[in-house]
Write a structure and sequence with these properties.
The protein is α+β, with helices and mostly antiparallel strands. The chain contains 6 helices and 8 strands; from the N terminus they run αββββαβββααβαα. The N and C termini lie far apart (about 55 Å).
């Protein structure tokens, strides 16, 4: 009977044509194949286990994946959640942000580990009152992992309208919007709304500038105040961005960025993308956020490479 009910369950209708066109295929699949759109992949973020093999039991760090090589999708293809209706007054919901922070030049991603229970996870947390969701995600990424980061504009398949009265040729195909929105119950009375973004570690010049700002703003009570990083420069290609770190530059990890005793228990690691997917396999969907986010990065690189 259960198999019969599953067969009879109606499939969700396809969404309307979005305003932003999907990025071109990386491998020329069928037109309706979700892998043809890196941005459509957040829909596959429910419960699938990645098809990557476990990393070796070897303390030597795994070799980094060559830059801008997409990760194949999981064997299974979970469906997105169906739209939901709800109403939550301000005391009954909390807005949060999370980030998958990639080091583009080495195809690695920042993953946190709880030093007591050994759980692996992506940095995330509640935004401050009055803070924008994207800025809150960047700040939480820094506080929980120790890596400065900025959200990366990508060719996401989104339903948001384009700006009014802007010429089409002036529109960028890349947007710094959430990759995925997750709804979680905090309790029987409170709703947690979590926006997931794709970010990158900041380049050396930005790192040095933020260090100077931090030193100028430091006080005895707060010796390491958080400084908001500048946004990703418009017109800077990913290939040009990687060239800003020639010579084997390693992103700076800042210690003691935790804001409470719980966060002080977090360790952070820069792992090759495939290893991070494996480490995150027990989370509800964070392994898929890493895979879909990295594939969207690869889609942007491919689009820029095809632009004369």
């Amino acid at each position: 009977m259960r198999k019969l009910l599953l067969l009879l369950r109606p499939r969700p209708r396809p969404p309307d044509q979005p305003k932003h066109a999907p990025p071109p295929s990386l491998s020329a699949p069928a037109e309706n194949d979700v892998e043809a759109r890196a941005s459509a992949e957040p829909a596959m973020a429910a419960s699938a286990s990645p098809s990557t093999a476990p990393p070796p039991n070897n303390p030597t760090p795994s070799p980094a994946r060559p830059p801008f090589q997409p990760i194949p999708r999981s064997i299974t293809q979970p469906l997105p959640s169906l739209p939901a209706t709800g109403a939550f007054p301000s005391p009954r919901f909390v807005v949060a942000g999370g980030v998958a922070i990639f080091h583009l030049a080495s195809a690695r991603v920042v993953v946190c580990r709880h030093s007591l229970d050994g759980d692996w996870f992506l940095p995330k947390g509640r935004r401050d009152a009055g803070e924008e969701s994207r800025a809150g995600a960047e700040r939480e990424g820094f506080e929980e992992s120790g890596y400065r980061n900025r959200v990366l504009p990508l060719p996401l398949h989104t339903r948001q309208p384009v700006p009014y009265n802007v010429a089409e040729e002036a529109l960028s195909p890349f947007v710094a919007d959430p990759l995925l929105v997750q709804l979680l119950p905090v309790s029987g009375r409170c709703q947690y709304v979590l926006f997931w973004y794709v970010a990158e570690t900041v380049p050396p010049e930005v790192e040095a500038g933020l260090d100077r700002e931090m030193e100028e703003a430091a006080t005895g009570e707060n010796p390491t105040p958080y400084r908001v990083p500048p946004g990703y420069p418009e017109g800077l290609t990913l290939a040009a961005r990687v060239r800003l770190e020639e010579g084997g530059y390693e992103p700076v990890h800042h210690p003691n960025t935790a804001v409470d005793a719980e966060e002080a228990l977090y360790e952070s690691h820069l792992l090759p993308v495939e290893e991070a997917i494996y480490r995150l396999r027990r989370t509800s969907l964070q392994h898929e956020i890493v895979r879909c986010g990295w594939n969207a990065v690869c889609a942007r690189y491919e689009m820029e490479a095809q632009t004369p």
